[in-house]
């Protein structure tokens, strides 16, 4: 199993990247389609709608025409019991990768994570209907989550944790997982949300 700890400017002291056995160390994203999960964040101060919009805008922009956004159907996800799926997918994915060192959900049977495979299965079954796209096809499901971990040591700053990765629904396995911590000044939090998505995709793709 491939677990790398790399330096990434602006992402705190280090970022962790996990890839399965046999990975070349990068994601071949050429010609692929990506189902991009809604932006998810917890415990951040300020206007959550503005922060979420900035986070997701920077994230989805990295995919261009290859990205299929689920952000517009978040209310529909809520109605079918998938409103929290971005959080559970991000947390379950990184838990399986970094704690169990596996690309399979089977080894991830913790308190919240055992439900993830069924949630993903339901999402895949319902996504064409939710998007009103009967012929929708995608190669990977991509997720990004941020939560605040309390105040930084410098007044006016926040400690943030970023979790994310890509899941291959055809193989039913995790393709890449990422995680990093950073400290961000509260007065630039909105601007930083727009920067986190591109940094995350660069890590997943293997550009750093």
Using DSSP, what is the number of strands? Answer: 8
Low-confidence stretches: 4-13
Report helical residue fraction. 25-40%
What is the residue-averaged pLDDT? 89
Net shape? globular
Would you tell me the structural class of the helices and strands?
A: alpha/beta
Query: Ends: how far apart?
Result: 19 Å
* Cα Rg: 16 Å
Secondary-structure element series:
EEEEHEHHHEEEH
Strand content: 25-35%
Number of helices, where a helix is a run of at least 4 consecutive DSSP H or I residues? 5
Largest sheet descriptor: 8 strands, mixed
How would you describe this structure to a colleague?
This protein has 208 residues and is of the alpha/beta class. Helix content is 33%, strand content 27%. It contains five helices and eight strands, in the order ββββαβαααβββα. Strands 1, 2, 3, 4, 5, 6, 7 and 8 form an eight-stranded mixed beta sheet that branches. Mean pLDDT is 89; it is low at 4-13.
What descriptive keywords fit this protein?
8 strands, alpha/beta, 208 residues
Summarize the structure.
The chain is α/β, with parallel strands linked by helices and 208 residues long. The protein contains five helices and eight strands; from the N terminus they run E-E-E-E-H-E-H-H-H-E-E-E-H.
Secondary-structure map:
Blueprint: E1 2-6, E2 15-19, E3 34-36, E4 40-42, H1 48-61, E5 67-69, H2 74-79, H3 85-100, H4 116-131, E6 140-151, E7 157-168, E8 173-185, H5 189-205
Parallel strand pairs: 3-5, 3-6, 4-6
Antiparallel strand pairs: 1-2, 2-8, 6-7, 7-8
Helix pairs in contact: 1-5
